[in-house]
Amino acid sequence: MAGSFRKALPEFQFRTPGSKTMSITREEIRELAEFQDQGGCALSFYFQPSIPRNKAHKEETILAKDLAREALCQLESKGKPDCARGDLDRILRLTGDFRSNGVHAKAIFACAAKGFWREYDLPAQLGSTQLFVDRNFHLKPLVHLLGALPNLWVVLLDRHRARLFDLRLGELNERVDLFHPLSRRGRSDGFAGYDAGHAQRRVDEEVRQHFKNVAESLKHAQEKNLFEKWILGCSEIHWSHLEPQLHPYVVERLLGRFSADVGHVTADEVRTNAERIFTEWQRRRRHQLVQEAMNQARGNARGVTGLRRVLRSLELGEVQTLVIAENYSAEAVECAACGHLDAHLVSFCPACGRATRNVVDVAEAILPLAIHRDVELFYVKDDPEFDRVGNIAALLRYRSDQSANVRPISVLPVGRSPRVRSVAVGRSRGFAS
Questions:
Q1: pTM surpassing 0.85?
Q2: Cα distances (angstroms) measured from residue 349 to each of 198, 256, 341, 355, 365
Q3: N or C: more exposed end of the chain, with fewer CB within 10 A?
Q4: What percentage of the chain reaches a pLDDT higher than 90?
């Protein structure tokens, strides 16, 4: 289709007509992260479809019933036998539909006491079916998946055509295919070849304008945060024409390039090349972040390691990037009044003096604060050097202990939770694993 590349960009903000696209926005993630129910009736259900052993497909239903029974037993032991019963019954009724939805997994977040119900289709990469009932929604499976599958754009182009693909949550959708035919030369080159030179200059200018339009459109999309990262498929000669036109911020988001024939490449080839480039970028990025955080921490600069220091930096708003081992697990305490998290298992909050409660999985507990503060999050797998420094680290925007203008956590007003207080949301950051 011929036309303006930029005018076609808004299509990326909507689902493809007539199709069911897996989608969850940053605003929805923040809504989930900020949700609290002091009655402890916030329910999080993750459904991972499995290969059935027989045609009855009963294993998943049995597992869901077992998880619901365990949750009810836990609630009864806390004297709250009915607070999530309605939501659990509704989920069990839906389990049969989940089995027939193909390869999609499901995530449900519900709290009947507050009239809250959110349901999302996800790629079948959750690992296992899980159910949690707590004061907050459990987001670690979702965050881990979103990090592994960020919002990627794949751009294919040549001298007169540009194709845009959206690779989101494992689904590849072509959104824009623009074709701009080049001017045709006449039958004769004219006197002394003058017309030939003029025609060639006209074609060269059209090609230059085509690459410029693509670059401007990418800059426009980057400013609106319509994509997190992007990958380019083209020949080397076309890259040499496009690169000078790209804004530095757009270049920063470029993960890599692969060779592609715009007119003949298949969707499977596009997906395979994009996933290969993204996986390699993730591997390099994880290693780079771990090394940088440890080096910065050793030099008492913009880095900290260990749970105690990371929690302190998170609450002070210092953290830019948080790095956690994939299976990291540690206990902590949380103040029931102000929300302060502490690695020391103390009975009373050092910030406000109120009673604390135990937190079994601190890696889950810090997610609302990390999401609220727009922190970039990476999960790291099997790194012995990272294990030696506690399997948790952070790169900092600044260090408050080196600035006289930042107050320590101990002087926060009582009742103001560092987890839920309002802060200005900056540039969107992605989660990665």
A1: no
A2: 79, 48, 9, 6, 16
A3: N
A4: 45
Q: Does position 8 have pLDDT exceeding 60, yes or no?
A: no
Half-sphere exposure of 13 (CA within 13 A, CB side): 9
95-134 burial code (b ≥16 CB/10 A, e <16) = beebbeeeebbbbbbbbbbeebeeebbbbbebeebbbbbb
pLDDT digits (tens, 9 = 90+) for 59-100: 777 888 888 888 888 887 777 877 888 888 888 888 766 665
Between 30 and 14, the more confident residue is 30
The two tokens of residue 183 are 């001017």
293-322 average pLDDT score:
94
Q: Return the pLDDT at 346.
A: 93
pLDDT greater than 80 at residue 235: yes
Model pLDDT for residues 253-268, shown as the tens digit of each residue? 999 999 999 989 999 9
SS (H, E, C) the chain: CCCCHHHHHHHHHCCCCCCCCCCCCHHHHHHHHHCCCCCCCEEEEEECCCCCCCCCCCHHHHHHHHHHHHHHHHHHHCCCCCCCHHHHHHHHHHHHHHHCCCCEEEEEEEEHHHCEEEEEEEECCCCCCEEEEECCCCCHHHHHHHHHCCCEEEEEECCCEEEEEEEECCEEEEEEEEECCCCCCCCCCCHHHHHHHHHHHHHHHHHHHHHHHHHHHHHHHHHCCCCCEEEEECCHHHHHHHHHHCCHHHHHCEEEEECCCCCCCCHHHHHHHHHHHHHHHHHHHHHHHHHHHHHHHHCCCCEEECHHHHHHHHHCCCEEEEEEECCCCCCEEEECCCCCEECCCCCECCCCCCEEEEECCHHHHCHHHHHHCCCEEEEECCCHHHHHCCCEEEEECCCHHHCCCCCCHHHCCCCCCCCCCCCCCCCCCCEEC
Q: Pseudo-torsion of CA 242, 223, 254, 284, nearest 10°? A: 160
